């Protein structure tokens, strides 16, 4: 191994690490949609819980379509654009040098959901391929059919949303027609919404002095809380153009509690929420 090659590998790692830090800074100042902003997405349960899986063999896939992992322990080693963290330095530089010398590297292993991919094996190879500006990479591909959002047009950038959405519906098992109404633009808010529904169900059980199973509680929340509130917000013109009705529901419910420490609704409360700045 030449000293020159080692130096070049270290420089390449440094460039990738600096790009990762710039992405992190962009995230911290609020540029949430900056390329690679945030940690590498984890897709729990792929393929075991996500749906049927079928191997399709080795083929060339687009490097830019790879944007997630199915291995939780890898999520802390790369950011959302597969730029490396410091603990990966030694292995990363070895892979970089092998790629630069023209060594034939083993195909990576990925699962495919829609038009995107999540890595099962080969995270360093993906990271190096991106750093070298490679367009494609050889991969063993397993196709996965998701239980939510199985359309072929699903992109890798949508996968965090689908993962959080799936977990929400496991905690809040709504009827099919009700599920279609729940849509959040920020995937992290699905967890907040699930907690809110569970808190609503607990208060309802206390008020009624009876146990309510999870499926019934989800249906009652949708019928007695969600629908009346979003209908009221729509009539009052309080759903912003860039929001879904579920975005507006979370925003207003949170604002109501922060301002008034209440879970009740009235015309007076609605008027105050409409007139007060957030």
Number of discrete domains: 2
Could you tell me the mean pLDDT?
78
Q: Find the count of extended strands (DSSP E, 2+ residues).
A: 6
The radius of gyration is 23 Å
* Secondary-structure content class: alpha/beta
Biggest pleated sheet: 6 strands, mixed
Termini Cα gap: 60 Å
Task: Present the secondary structure layout.
Blueprint: H1 3-28, E1 41-42, E2 53-62, E3 66-69, H2 89-100, E4 108-113, E5 116-121, H3 123-131, E6 136-144, H4 159-171, H5 176-179, H6 189-208, H7 214-235, H8 245-260, H9 267-275
Parallel strand pairs: 1-3, 3-5, 4-6
Antiparallel strand pairs: 2-6, 4-5
Helix pairs in contact: 1-2, 2-3, 4-6, 6-7, 7-8
What does this structure look like?
The protein has 278 residues and is an alpha/beta fold. It folds into 2 domains: 3-152, no CATH class; 172-275, no CATH class. Helix content is 47%, strand content 13%. It has 9 helices and 6 strands; from the N terminus they run αβββαββαβαααααα. The protein has helices at 3-28, 89-100, 123-131, 159-171, 176-179, 189-208, 214-235, 245-260, 267-275, and strands spanning 41-42, 53-62, 66-69, 108-113, 116-121, 136-144. It has a 6-stranded mixed beta sheet, sandwiched between helices. A hairpin with a 2-residue loop joins β4 and β5 (116-121). α2 (89-100) crosses α3 (123-131), α4 packs parallel to α6 (189-208) and α6 (189-208) packs across α7 (214-235). The protein starts with a helix and ends with a helix. The model is unreliable at 29-36, 47-52, 148-155 and 259-263 (pLDDT under 50).
């Amino acid at each position: 191994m030449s000293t020159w090659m080692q130096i070049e590998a270290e420089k390449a790692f440094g460039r990738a690490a600096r790009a990762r830090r710039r992405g992190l800074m962009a995230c911290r100042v609020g540029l949430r949609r900056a390329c690679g902003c945030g940690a590498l997405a984890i897709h729990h349960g792929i393929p075991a819980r996500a749906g049927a899986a079928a191997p399709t063999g080795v083929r060339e896939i687009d490097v830019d379509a790879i944007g997630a992992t199915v291995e939780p322990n890898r999520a802390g080693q790369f950011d959302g654009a597969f730029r490396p963290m410091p603990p990966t330095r030694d292995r990363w530089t070895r892979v970089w040098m092998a790629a630069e010398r023209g060594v034939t590297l083993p195909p990576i292993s990925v699962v495919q959901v829609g038009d995107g991919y999540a890595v099962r094996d080969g995270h360093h190879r993906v990271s190096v391929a991106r750093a070298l500006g490679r367009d494609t990479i050889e991969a063993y591909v397993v196709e996965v059919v998701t239980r939510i959002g199985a359309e072929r047009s699903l992109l890798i950038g949508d996968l965090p949303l689908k993962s959080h959405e799936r977990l929400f519906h496991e905690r809040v098992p709504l009827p099919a027609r009700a599920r279609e109404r729940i849509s959040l633009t920020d995937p992290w808010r699905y967890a907040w919404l699930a907690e809110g529904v569970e808190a609503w169900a607990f208060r309802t059980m206390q008020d009624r002095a009876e146990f309510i199973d999870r499926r019934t509680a989800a249906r009652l929340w949708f019928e007695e809380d969600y629908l009346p509130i979003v209908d009221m917000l729509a009539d009052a013109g309080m759903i912003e153009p860039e929001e879904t009705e579920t975005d507006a529901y979370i925003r207003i419910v949170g604002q109501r509690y922060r301002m008034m420490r209440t879970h009740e609704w009235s015309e007076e409360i609605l008027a105050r929420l409409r007139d007060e700045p957030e």
